[in-house]
Design brief:
single chain; alpha/beta; Ubiquitin-like (UB roll); Rossmann fold; 2 domains; 11-stranded mixed sheet; 14 strands
């Protein structure tokens, strides 16, 4: 038998870590500690949020303000859609924005009430009139569109572009006061796409004011109305003339048939009677072919 000496182990090659300067090492440790602290705070914050929504939830939603057109359920459903945290961390602006999306809401405010209550203050729009097709408008000229079945009955009808709502409302209110003196009320008022103004009254006639000098034309109509009413029941009064007006009659007619056509493009119904009036001559109705000699009746829009 032969004996072999075990192989001698070779010493491992020497290896040494690079030496860091004490200042750099300290900065590295500080950075590492700061990162660990941030991660710990984030984890702790997430845990606390979970605890907050669990132990400090929103349990009660109170509604303040006079609510007539909406239901409390509609408001509560909006709050429920946006409720995501506890009483301390819930985003109130999100709830407020969701409530303001309801058509009837004019303004809304949300506040916390310790320990578990949200208080919502709501005010509703107050409709002055119907607006266009399926809309409502307030006295401030704010247009809103609720569900059709929510539109109140018995309101006057205003029409016009949405961006002109304030002007239409302003004229409706101002002109309504002027017509009230003559025992009239406005049922509809329209500012059409051409900028021409037309109204109907509770006396059953339509008043055309055109696009220009509408305030002056309305004043002229009001001065002439007693004479018009004494002559019969008007169906349409056209103020789009430079120094007079044209009337088509409904029901009672004048004794003599007037000749001389309506304003261009007006298209009175066949068989209706027309009379012309010039306020410059003591509001006398001229039921004869054309205006008095020397006067003119040019049509203006």
């Amino acid at each position: 038998m032969r004996w072999f000496d075990p192989p001698q182990s070779r010493p491992a090659p020497a290896f040494s870590l690079p030496r860091l300067e004490p200042r750099l090492a300290w900065r590295f440790l500080k950075g590492l500690s700061g990162l660990a602290l941030i991660l710990a705070m984030l984890a702790g914050g997430h845990w606390l949020l979970q605890l907050e929504s669990q132990y400090l939830p929103v349990r009660v939603v109170s509604i303040e303000g006079e609510v007539r057109r909406m239901t409390l359920q509609q408001i509560q459903e909006r709050v429920g859609m946006t409720l995501e945290a506890g009483i301390l961390t819930q985003d109130l602006a999100t709830i407020q924005a969701a409530i303001k999306e309801l058509p009837w809401v004019d303004s809304a405010g949300v506040r916390r009430a310790w320990p578990d209550r949200l208080v919502i203050a709501v005010s509703e729009h107050k409709p002055l009139a119907r607006w266009g097709e399926g809309g409502l408008v307030t006295a401030e000229g704010v247009v809103f569109r609720p569900e059709r079945h929510e539109i109140p009955a018995g309101l006057p009808q205003l029409r016009g572009p949405d961006d002109q709502a304030r002007q239409v409302v302003r004229r409706y209110l101002a002109w309504g006061q002027l017509l009230k003196v003559r025992g009239l009320a406005i049922l509809t008022l329209e500012d059409d796409p051409r900028g021409a103004w037309t109204m109907t009254t509770d006396a059953g006639f339509t008043l055309l004011l055109g696009r220009t000098e509408v305030e002056t034309r309305l004043e002229r109509f009001l001065r002439a109305y007693p004479e018009i009413l004494a002559a019969g029941r008007p169906a349409r009064v056209d103020m789009r003339y430079s120094n007079g007006l044209a009337v088509s009659w409904s029901g009672a007619r004048l004794a003599a048939r007037a000749v001389g056509g309506p304003a261009e493009g007006l298209g009175y119904p066949s068989g209706s009677e027309h009379a012309y009036l010039d306020p410059a001559t003591t509001n006398r109705l001229f039921n004869q072919p054309g205006p008095p000699e020397g006067d003119s009746w040019p049509y203006r829009s």
